[in-house]
Write a structure and sequence with these properties.
mainly alpha; Growth Hormone, Chain: A; about 0% strand
Length: about 450
């Protein structure tokens, strides 16, 4: 006999833990969302203003490149240092990191009037203000998210970053640079205040996870199989930025805005699928999108229609990669260890590759677009190969539990349908039997399996 009470007992016995997680995940996740989203929005915006200020200086291109190089070098070195230091007192370190970022935002106001040495020091300090705390911020996100929800929560976080960067970036583009830097300094403080308010009652984890040496981490086969394609993507993608911007011309700005908006949407889509079908399939799909977009652009780069196709595919791929590669994978791989070092290795290839457009910019006019995009397409398709041998980081039990959960939901609908039939008065029993037979014939295989599951437990 089918009834809702038995259904609830069966459901709780099989997936009770998941239902508990659904009830508490946002409360635990809110501090991580504020911390990571406000930090990445600040980074995207402050780097844009920093680039504009350096670009306006009356300096040789080589000297400007040195200033950018100082920023990225300090970024990388401080990330390794922070990955070692911050786990000792993560919350305190993150607080000082955000305060330092606010101070550095204001200090950039002096760049136009400084001499070269002072601007070099400011470039180094700005790199430190970004890199030293970012691995711990991402590690905080991973520690605040259960592995079976990390994909969608990573997607929500990056979606917030995408649309937040559009809003903040759009706002400061309409004001003077000095006021824009003041706004970003205040934005950093706002992020700090909300982070402290949300984590005030949240205790540091009592169980300290063991820390691994970088040599041991890099000897892991599963990490290398994911890291190699990620490095390949980062290098190819950023190397192509000046070339694509030169090709797109005035459309480049619009393309960037569309890509950012689409990445925010597809980050949620990619994260949702990553929690259902696994991380690997989503990542492979992203690489296929990238390969297709560059292949189309290499053959039809003079056709404006190809520019829109390129932009749409690029936004979709970026969203998937941001949710899975940047936010989720390194947390999965470090599930039993301190996470900072994993996020250092996983985050730096993407972030440091941002230096490539600076190096290629002076030579973009001499590079043939068709050849560049053909090479990019080839290397992106090659980059997919290691992923076919990479193990899935989402536990198989989690995927099976989700499949079971979907059948349980179908069983619930069947229970409700049967109960409704019993309460409904049917004058003609023959017609009722015919209707039941007709409905049984129309049942899908999934519904049939759900019905069998429901009848098994009642």
């Amino acid at each position: 006999m089918l009834n809702s009470t038995n259904y609830q007992v069966a459901r709780k016995s099989m997936i009770g833990k998941m239902s508990i997680v659904k009830g508490i995940v946002f409360r635990d996740f809110a501090p991580a969302l504020v911390l990571v989203a406000t930090s990445l929005i600040w980074y995207v915006s402050i780097y844009t203003l920093f680039g504009d200020l350096i670009g306006k200086l009356a300096l040789p291109d080589f000297t400007k490149t040195l200033l950018f190089g100082a920023f990225f070098a300090a970024f990388a070195i401080s990330a390794f240092f922070g990955g070692w230091l911050f786990p000792r007192a993560r919350k305190l370190g993150l607080v000082f990191w955000m305060i330092f970022g606010s101070i550095m935002s204001l200090s950039l106001v002096t760049i136009p009037t400084n001499n070269l040495i002072v601007n070099f020091i400011l470039s180094v300090l700005l790199g430190v203000s970004v890199g030293v705390g970012l691995p711990s911020a991402l590690a905080f996100f991973a520690d605040s998210t259960p592995i079976w929800k990390r994909g969608i929560l990573g997607g929500i976080t990056w979606s917030t970053v995408g649309f937040g960067a559009l809003a903040i970036g759009g706002s400061i583009s309409f004001v003077e640079t000095t006021l824009g830097l003041v706004i970003l300094s205040i934005w950093r403080v706002i992020g700090l205040v909300f982070f402290l308010a949300l984590t005030r009652a949240k205790q540091e984890p009592l169980i300290k996870k063991p820390s691994e040496k970088y040599k041991r981490i890099l000897s892991r086969r599963d990490l290398i199989l994911y890291l190699a394609p990620w490095i390949m993507f980062s290098l190819v993608n950023f190397a192509e930025v000046p070339i694509s911007q030169n090709l797109l011309g005035e459309f480049a700005t619009m393309s960037g805005l569309i890509t950012l908006a689409l990445s925010g949407i597809f980050a949620i889509v990619g994260g949702m699928f990553a929690d259902r079908i696994g991380r690997k399939r989503v990542v492979i799909t992203g690489f296929v999108f990238l390969g297709i977009e560059y292949a189309i652009l290499s053959f039809f780069y003079e056709n404006p229609v190809s520019w829109y196709i390129y932009t749409c595919f690029d936004g979709a791929a970026w969203g998937m990669f941001a949710a899975v590669f940047f936010m989720t994978l390194w947390g999965d791989l470090s599930e039993n260890f301190q996470r900072e070092k994993y996020y250092v290795l996983g985050g730096l290839p993407y972030l440091l590759a941002g230096f490539l457009p600076v190096l290629i910019e002076p030579y973009k006019a001499s590079i043939e677009a068709s050849t560049a995009f053909t090479i990019a397409s080839f290397f992106l398709f090659v980059a997919v190969l290691p992923l076919f041998y990479a193990p899935e980081t989402l536990p198989e039990k989690t995927m099976k539990d989700r499949e079971l959960s979907s059948y349980i939901e179908r069983a619930k609908k069947i229970v409700e349908k049967e109960n409704a039939k019993k309460q409904k008065q049917v004058p003609n029993k023959t017609d009722s039997k015919n209707e039941d037979a007709s409905e049984e014939l129309q049942e899908s295989p999934e519904d049939k399996k759900a019905r069998e599951l429901a009848e098994k437990y009642y």
